Amino acid sequence: MDLQSLVAAHMPNRRRPRQMGAAAEDRYYRNQITLPRLRLRLLGLTAATAGVTLLLAGIINT
Length: 62
Prior knowledge:
The chain contains three helices and no strands. With 62 residues, the chain is mostly helical.
């Protein structure tokens, strides 16, 4: 087996995406634009980080 055949055998087979209708295309782009929901854990971590930062800033400045 030559090098060209070996490379061709291991190349991924990429199919062309199928055509979407107007409604499907609208749904696709609407789903891409929506912001991710903040999870409670992420919100708690952000609040704790902000609290510690403010506490340290208050301790250092006094």
